[in-house]
Design a protein that fits this description.
Layout lengths: L1 E7 L9 E7 L11 E7 L13 H10 L2 E6 L9 H15 L6 E11 L1 H12 L3 H4 L13 E5 L11 H8 L6 H6 L12 E7 L8 H13 L3 E6 L11 H4 L13 H13 L7
Parallel strand pairs: 3-4, 3-5, 5-6, 6-7, 7-8
Antiparallel strand pairs: 1-2, 2-4
Helix pairs in contact: 2-3
Length: 280
């Protein structure tokens, strides 16, 4: 396995560049031409920090599936929208440029975000072809387009069901700007160009209400976007893998019933991208 680190600089960063750590799997002699999917992981943390539970433990799961994976440590407050979504678009483009070198399938780049990181991944999903994202990066919209997205208990709305802290950190001094509030309420921004999506949430999430995923799913239904949605009847917020690896001794984070999301995400990737088989 190889590991490389890249700094990602975009306009208006207030705290230095984002950091993209790339974990690559070397092909073995029996499959020297294999092209792997790449999953770019964005942990949650309310746009205030990035949770350790949603960093390397998630990356390792995708590596075990046979994917390559990246961890994006994106800019949080005091940085404001759209800095982090530009960073993610630049990260996707960087992976796509290195696809041949890293044995990556350039049409199988998937973002994976949790909570506020889910808002970030979904933001790129809806905004990848908007000039305010790709223009300042001096890249084409297609370079930064994700081919799919995996969203775990994502922050979606800025409306009554919002995780208010995430939205406040995202907009900072512009939190009273009604047009911006509407813009970052992603259920209002879905078009047919949103990539295929896998979502999971818990019905009893007390921090980011389940309606966030339901509203996004309804918007995708109306636009004809392919998606898979799983709602678990139990479990709180921030479960990550919902096991001892990410929950430690914190009982609220140990919900064995919810552990199946990662295997279902694997099945979704295989169904939609054939990206975990030996067939190319």
């Amino acid at each position: 396995m190889r590991m490389e680190t890249f700094e990602i600089a975009v306009p208006n960063q207030k705290t230095g560049p984002a950091v993209l750590t790339v974990y690559g799997i070397d092909n073995i002699s029996v499959a020297p031409e294999k092209k792997r999917p790449m999953v770019i992981v964005c942990g949650g943390g309310g746009y205030h920090r990035i949770s350790d539970r949603e960093k390397e433990p998630i990356v390792l799961q995708f590596l075990a599936m046979g994917c390559s994976a990246c961890l994006l440590e994106y800019s949080v407050a005091p940085n404001e929208f759209p800095v982090s979504v530009q960073e993610l678009a630049a990260a996707v483009a960087l992976v796509r440029r290195h696809a041949a070198e890293w044995s990556i399938a350039p049409d199988k780049i998937i973002t994976c975000g949790f909570s506020a990181g889910g808002h970030l991944a979904a933001s790129l999903g809806v905004f990848w072809n908007r000039e305010f994202v790709y223009g300042p990066l001096e890249q084409s919209p297609e370079e930064g387009r994700p081919d799919g997205q995996i969203l775990g208990y994502p922050v979606i709305t800025s409306g009554p069901k919002a995780h208010r802290g995430s939205i406040e950190n995202l907009l900072g001094s512009r939190i009273e700007d009604e047009e911006l509030l509407k813009l970052v309420s992603l259920e209002n921004q879905v078009t047919k160009d949103v990539p295929k999506t896998f979502l999971w949430h818990t019905l009893t999430d007390g921090a980011v209400p389940v309606e966030n995923s339901l509203m996004f799913a309804q918007a995708m239904t109306e636009q004809g976007v392919s998606y898979e949605l799983h709602i678990y009847p139990c479990g709180g917020h921030g479960l990550s893998l919902a096991n001892e690896e990410t929950g430690g001794v914190q009982e609220p984070l140990l919900v064995p019933y919810c552990e199946s999301w990662i295997s279902m995400a694997k099945a979704w990737m295989e169904l939609n991208f054939h990206c975990l088989s030996q067939k190319q």
